[in-house]
Write a structure and sequence with these properties.
Number of strands: 0
Largest sheet: none
Shape: elongated
Length: about 190
């Protein structure tokens, strides 16, 4: 019976049938209430269905069973974020960053939440930490370049745009960023002359 529900859950997840996967996972948890993986998958299904309170409940339950299950911490933070509970999401991500300082995800997710809250300057050190861990993440490099451009640190912005172009020579956003910076520098030189 356990194996049947486990196999069905996996099949329904793979075939993108969240409603059926949810029912199978719930049955699986009735058989084995300590199955943290089933609880986590159920939380993930609830997130995909935009049912954030049950998602959070499942991630919390997962963490009660296995407190060092980091993906459940990420899911919990995502649930809080989706509910607009930014400070709670940031708190969970901060705990995760302390547990796994070399994991890039908490830094990226935290910075995006801070940007959404309008705290762009506070996001910069987190993004810098993220690229110190993984300097090939184009999205992070681009966000960071834009933030530096917005606060007037044109040199750092240009340096980041150049890094992006080294990784992806066809990146239009980086090319446009450099073009914007060059136009601004040209305009400033005209005004000085």
């Amino acid at each position: 019976n356990f194996n049947t529900y486990h196999n069905l859950s996996t099949l329904y997840i793979q075939t993108e049938q969240p409603g059926k996967a949810k029912k199978s996972l719930e049955k699986l948890l009735q058989i084995d209430s300590e199955n943290y993986q089933a609880s986590f998958m159920l939380g993930t299904i609830f997130l995909s269905l935009k049912e954030y309170y049950p998602a959070i409940a499942n991630f919390l339950y997962t963490l009660r069973i296995k407190e060092d299950f980091h993906n459940a911490k990420i899911g919990l933070a995502e649930g809080y974020y989706k509910l607009g509970r930014y400070k709670m999401a940031l708190r969970e991500l901060e705990f995760l960053a302390k547990d796994l300082p070399e994991m890039v995800t908490p830094y990226i997710k935290s910075s995006l939440i801070l940007i959404e809250m309008g705290h762009n300057i506070d996001a910069i050190p987190l993004l810098e930490k993220a690229i110190s861990i993984d300097n090939s993440n184009l999205e992070v490099l681009e966000i960071l370049a834009i933030l530096y451009e917005e606060i007037g640190n044109k040199d750092r912005a240009e340096e980041l745009y150049q890094e992006i172009l080294l990784l992806d020579s066809e990146n239009k956003s980086a090319a446009e960023g450099i073009e914007r910076l060059e136009k601004l520098a040209s305009k400033l030189n005209e005004n000085i002359s």
